[in-house]
């Protein structure tokens, strides 16, 4: 097995521009747009048998608003979906006049226009692997009794990762979903692994105005959903690799968990109404965790479908895990900042791919490569000549003498790689200042570090007969430091919720081996290669998210009584802030220590999350209190829109929440800053325990914890404490951070760590 990923920035941006143009094209008076309409279902007139009847009659009545629409049948207002779980209401295609009239209808709460959603995958070329999380696997029986709902672009059901070999026939009893038939997809495409598959195309179909959807079923033709599903819950597949790289047994984080896929992302575009419908069904079908590797690429709104749908999921005890976005490394770019979801950013792991250069005099140098063929370059002349060594002109390269060309460190490595790929040279050695986050290579090229390059250049310059060999298709497990925060990953703070630290945690996201559509040939732009494979290496917070979703799923299986907040807390307080050199994790954007605004609490640490010692729990009303103090200035009606319920109000707005991390945001007016956080922890260890607070204060801050010792007499006992930060800085504009760690003084060996951030509002 082996393949290439057709994922280049150009086609990706093109895809986004296209989504936008679909939406922007609709603006004249009779043109209709999709609206998501929130209704107060308690106001349904008695005459209607069901909400669907009621909503249908409302939409039907709108036909008379605009006489022109009566003439032309095709353009009457139409109902898309009825929603019962993610929110209460429906979606419909309406023009401006119809919307105006709808607003006067009994029970109307609000309407919002459909916006494009974005899949979270960047193609940052760096290769990683999954970790086998043994302790949690054993305790959860690999997730056999739990179900994950994937809201994405569908699935390639025949892929070996989705076979049900070894899966028990006892599908969890609460499962209410089904396998929806469609183009190239029938009920026999589901099995004991893939227990559900549905697709939601009403909004996209409408937008296409009669043009056909290319794959009108839950079948994935873009690859994104297949990748995400395999990372979260792929079955074991032996001998998987990407052209011989990263070879081994492929598996998801929860390899025995059941998969339910909800296709809401289409090659033709993604629409809010379809996304809400997918989440609505996932909740009703009985999934335990919902994984959403998507976000809005405009500033998040409090009532976008992911916010609204995930709040309903929270109320039903469903954990929602989302991608932090790939808009980094600028600050305040974090997507999906809602306090009630887990927001996951991306890291590297310690596996990297490449080959070995052997110089004629016997020295070995390892370097980066993803050259997809088994070729070995054996004892070729080593050519180092200026201006050839700039390696940025295919024409010049085609005049090169036979041999391996040694290129100088240039400003544009990608351009050098593409020049070499489109020339006829037998092989090349390129130089980069570090070997992190390098592009994929489709040429017989090896990228070495500038440190290693000195000896290679010396040898080439001082030997007329210099020669070299290169072996490709090697995987190395020694990347140091690792993990590191990916450069592309979005950063906090989340301006909408400035009292909540986001992102929450980091998970492997760069160059992860994942299932791919075997018939989808994928090649980098400009390379003369078109290859197929069952597996690819992909990067992005889209890939990090399903890792965390899988961990949440396993935790849910072991601790079914834990609330979504408790599961999040366990994942956050056990995350590891150190790398494999036992130093603080670094940020690839700066090569300096990563702040919690980049990595949250650190790298997820599944086996520790199994037994976190203490948890910070929170109820839905607590989240509403935070929403009430957000920058959105919400009214009671807005709160009803987000929560789809009249049970919540803003009588106790609060910027703080019983959250497992701390952030204090200041501005010119608020320094010196004194802020107190109140927290309550629940003992989920085996029995009595005593914890001691250990604080690393952020620079220029004084941190007090009171009380600084917590004595628990038994399991599930709760204790409160206050933490006060006093921050004095001579001048603004710097992020400082530290941590509060509750250390179990007994045999329990728990450390419950919360990052602390003090940062200016505008960083
Ligand atoms: C589903 O499709 C496959 C392949 O097209 C076919 O062999 C099978 O009989 C179909 N199953 C059902 C239940 O329709
Ligand atoms: C590479 O070699 C082929 C065949 O020898 C030739 O047709 C082609 O023009 C060459 N490409 C370049 C960029 O020189
Ligand atoms: C919210 O209210 C505050 C104070 O009334 C105001 O300064 C701010 O502009 C408002 N924000 C929005 C988004 O309306
Ligand atoms: C707000 O909600 C609380 C709890 O549900 C309730 O006790 C209170 O009366 C509500 N306040 C208002 C103004 O609706
Ligand atoms: C925390 O501070 C609040 C407000 O000052 C106070 O009412 C509460 O008793 C304190 N809690 C603890 C555990 O000290
Ligand atoms: C406590 O846990 C750490 C890892 O978290 C481990 O290295 C250490 O050996 C443990 N100590 C005891 C006494 O179990």
TrEMBL record:
GO annotation, cellular component aspect:
extracellular region
Q: Reply yes or no: does the keyword Signal apply.
A: yes
Can you give the residue ranges of the Inhibitor I9 domain? 35-119
Q: Which GO terms describe its molecular function?
A: serine-type endopeptidase activity
In the record, biological process GO terms are: proteolysis; response to symbiotic bacterium
Q: Which Pfam families does the entry mention?
A: fn3_6, Inhibitor_I9, Peptidase_S8
Q: Where is the active site?
A: 152, 224, 542
| Location within or outside the cell | Secreted
Peptidase S8/S53 domain span: 143-578
Kindly report the protein's main subcellular placement as a broad class.
secreted
Q: Which residues form the signal peptide?
A: 1-25
Q: What keywords are annotated for this sequence in UniProt?
A: Glycoprotein, Hydrolase, Protease, Secreted, Serine protease, Signal
The residues covered by the Subtilisin-like protease fibronectin type-III domain are: 656-758
The family assignment reads: Belongs to the peptidase S8 family.
Protein's name according to its UniProt entry: Subtilisin-like protease
Q: What is the native source organism of this protein?
A: Morella rubra
């Amino acid at each position: 097995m082996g393949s290439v990923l057709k994922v280049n920035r150009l086609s990706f941006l093109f895809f986004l521009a296209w989504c936008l143009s679909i939406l922007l094209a609709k603006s004249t008076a009779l043109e209709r747009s999709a609206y998501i309409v929130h209704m107060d279902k308690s106001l349904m007139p008695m005459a209607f048998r069901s909400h669907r009847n009621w909503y249908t009659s409302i939409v039907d009545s709108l036909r008379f608003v605009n006489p022109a629409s009566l003439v032309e049948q095709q353009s009457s207002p139409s109902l898309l979906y009825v929603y019962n779980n993610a929110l209460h209401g429906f979606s419909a295609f309406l023009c401006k006049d119809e919307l105006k009239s709808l607003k006067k209808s009994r029970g109307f709460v609000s309407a919002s226009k459909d916006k494009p959603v974005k899949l979270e995958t960047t193609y940052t070329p760096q290769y990683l692997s999954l970790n086998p999380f043994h302790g949690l696997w054993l305790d959860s029986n690999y997730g056999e009794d739990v179900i994950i709902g994937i809201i994405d672009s569908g699935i390639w059901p025949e892929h070996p990762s989705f076979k049900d070999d070894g899966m028990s026939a006892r599908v969890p009893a609460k499962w209410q979903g089904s396998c929806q038939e469609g183009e190239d997809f029938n009920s026999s495409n589901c099995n004991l692994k893939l227990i559900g598959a549905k697709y939601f195309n009403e909004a996209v179909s409408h937008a296409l105005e009669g043009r056909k959807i290319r794959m009108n079923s839950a079948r994935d033709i873009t690859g994104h959903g297949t990748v995400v599903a395999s990372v979260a819950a792929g079955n074991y597949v032996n001998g998987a690799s990407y052209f011989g790289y990263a070879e081994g047994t492929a598996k998801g984080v929860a390899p025995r968990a059941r998969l339910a896929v909800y296709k809401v992302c289409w090659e033709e575009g993604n629409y809010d109404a379809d996304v809400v419908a997918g989440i609505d069904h996932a909740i009703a079908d009985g999934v335990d965790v919902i994984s959403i590797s998507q976000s809005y690429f405009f500033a998040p709104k409090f009532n976008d479908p992911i916010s609204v749908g995930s709040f309903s999921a929270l109320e039903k005890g469903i954990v929602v895990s989302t991608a932090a976005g790939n808009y980094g490394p600028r600050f305040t770019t974090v997507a999906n900042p809602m306090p009630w979801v887990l927001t996951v950013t991306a890291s590297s792991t310690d596996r990297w791919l490449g080959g070995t250069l052997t110089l004629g005099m016997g020295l070995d140098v390892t370097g980066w490569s993803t050259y997809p063929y088994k070729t070995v370059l054996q004892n070729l002349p080593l050519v180092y000549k200026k201006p050839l060594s700039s390696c940025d002109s295919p024409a010049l390269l085609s005049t090169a003498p036979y041999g391996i060309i040694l290129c100088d460190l240039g400003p544009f490595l990608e351009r050098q790689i593409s020049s070499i790929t489109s020339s006829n040279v037998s092989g090349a050695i390129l130089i980069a200042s570090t070997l992190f986050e390098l592009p994929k290579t489709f040429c017989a090229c090896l990228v070495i570090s500038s440190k290693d390059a000195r000896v290679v250049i010396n040898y080439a310059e001082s030997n007329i007969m210099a020669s070299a060999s290169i072996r490709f298709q090697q995987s190395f497990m020694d990347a140091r430091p690792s993990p590191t925060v990916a450069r592309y990953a979005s950063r906090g703070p989340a301006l909408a919720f400035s009292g909540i630290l986001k992102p929450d945690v980091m998970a492997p996201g760069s160059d992860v081996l994942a299932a791919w559509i075997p018939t989808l040939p994928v090649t980098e732009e400009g390379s003369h290669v078109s290859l197929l494979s069952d597996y690819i290496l992909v990067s992005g917070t889209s890939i990090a998210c399903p890792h965390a979703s899988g961990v949440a799923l396993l935790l849910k299986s072991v601790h079914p009584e834990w609330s979504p907040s408790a599961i999040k807390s366990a994942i956050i307080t056990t995350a590891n802030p150190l790398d494999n050199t036992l130093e603080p994790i670094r940020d690839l954007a700066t090569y300096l220590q990563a702040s919690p605004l980049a990595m949250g609490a650190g790298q997820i640490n599944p086996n520790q999350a199994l037994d976190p010692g203490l948890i910070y729990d929170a109820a839905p009303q607590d989240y509403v209190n935070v929403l009430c103090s957000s920058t959105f200035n919400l009214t009671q009606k807005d709160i009803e829109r987000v929560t789809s319920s009249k049970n919540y109000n803003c009588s106790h707005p609060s910027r703080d929440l019983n959250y497992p991390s701390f952030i204090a945001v200041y501005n010119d007016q608020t320094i010196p800053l004194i802020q107190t956080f109140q927290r309550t922890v629940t003992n989920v260890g085996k029995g009595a325990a005593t914890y001691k607070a250990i604080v690393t204060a952020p620079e220029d801050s004084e941190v007090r914890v009171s009380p600084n010792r917590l004595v628990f007499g038994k399991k599930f006992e709760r204790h409160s404490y206050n933490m006060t930060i006093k921050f004095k800085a001579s001048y603004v504009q710097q992020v400082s951070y530290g941590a509060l760690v509750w250390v179990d003084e007994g045999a329990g060996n728990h450390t419950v760590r919360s990052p602390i951030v003090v940062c200016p509002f505008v960083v």
